[in-house]
Amino acid sequence: GENVEQHPSTLSVQEGDSAVIKCTYSDSASNYFPWYKQELGKRPQLIIDIRSNVGEKKDQRIAVTLNKTAKHFSLHITETQPEDSAVYFCAASREGQNFVFGPGTRLSVLP
Amino acid sequence: DAGVIQSPRHEVTEMGQEVTLRCKPISGHNSLFWYRQTMMRGLELLIYFNNNVPIDDSGMPEDRFSAKMPNASFSTLKIQPSEPRDSAVYFCASSPTSTGNTIYFGEGSWLTVV
Fold it and tell me: Which candidate in B41, B99, B101, B110 is best for mutational testing of the A interface (most A CBs within 10 A)?
């Protein structure tokens, strides 16, 4: 089955700096890669996703890149703000298989 | 749409008691997922249904856990008897299809077993 690893487990950045979180997956057939943000005490919420026919996707300060050959994908947050502080989860999925989530990255944006 | 609706939001129960968590998926979604979240184990998939049929229950910890989906708009997760190690946040989520699509989480049921 699919196995998703995520690094780093914790990340602290200064406000205004960039943050990068990386994930790797094992199943080469996976073709959908979402990222979720979970604030303290809240539910995980989708912030961006990418499909295997696309190499990069951007939405304002957030971007995701996908390298299918290497089986890894990354989340990039630019100009970080205190409200970006949260736990971020990556996931991988393919037809006929449920989502597998990474273990999460706790991002702290320091003022 | 109101989103995925879960109840209760919080429950504190004594060890050995039966616990029933409830979920109403987003209307029109045909896949439903139950996840458990703890600090130690992160987000674990317990079971998921497609068109009300359980597809994968390999994540259900043991026989004390059971899940049902009697119709497209309702699912339950039952723990009997409950144990302190079951304390966690239980999320229900739904998706338009079982794979390749975003899943939407409910607000979670915070369970404490004392």
Answer: B99
